[in-house]
Amino acid sequence: MVKDSVELDMRGRCSAGQKVLACIIIRLALAESFGDKFGVLALDEPTTNLDRENVESLARSLSSLVRHRRAQRNFQLIVITHDEEFLRFMGCSDFVENYYRVGRDSSQKSQIRLQRITDVL
Predict the structure, then answer these.
(1) pLDDT-based confidence at 10, cuts 50/70/90?
(2) How many CB atoms are located within 10 Å of the residue 29 CB?
(3) Cβ atoms of 64 and 94 closer than 8 Å
(4) CB neighbour list of residue 29: distance below 8 Å, 6 or more residues apart
(5) For 42-70, b where at least 16 C-beta lie within 10 A, e where not — what string?
(6) In terms of Cα–Cα distance, which of 61, 58, 66, 22 is closest to 40?
(7) How far is the C-alpha of 121 from the C-alpha of 102, rounded, in Å?
(8) Are 102 and 91 in contact (CB under 8 A)?
(9) 50, 54, 56, 57 alpha-carbon torsion, rounded to 10°
(10) What is the pLDDT of residues 19-77, one digit of tens each?
């Protein structure tokens, strides 16, 4: 790990957030390496245990990936998250118009609603 231009020995010293981020980076690298022109990338709560600096960095990286893959017909990024700030950091309104919000109605039954991304951002 490199932080502020200093290489740190992280064996056995990673926080939960660093482990989550490392897993996401490894999965992205494997998808790029073995899944030439992979079509779907699904992330479930990718910001769990990440500090704001790493959330912003992940958001910028995913935004760059989406911009790079935009012309690819079969590419889809699916993000399941409660972290609306993460979506703002990604600049989601540049890529999509709508999203699905899952919630509960007054009788506690699940509802899935199509909403405009500008409603959250």
Answers:
(1) low
(2) 10
(3) no
(4) none
(5) ebeebbeebeeebbbebbeebbebbeebe
(6) 66
(7) 17
(8) no
(9) -140
(10) 777 787 787 777 777 766 667 888 889 998 888 998 999 999 899 988 888 888 888 88
The residues with which 80 forms a beta bridge, in sequence order, are: 44
Of the candidates 30, 109, 114, 43, the residue with the CA atom closest to the CA atom of residue 79: 43
Q: Which two tokens stand for residue 112?
A: 């899935």
* Overall size of the chain counted in residues: 121
Structure tokens at 14: 């990673």
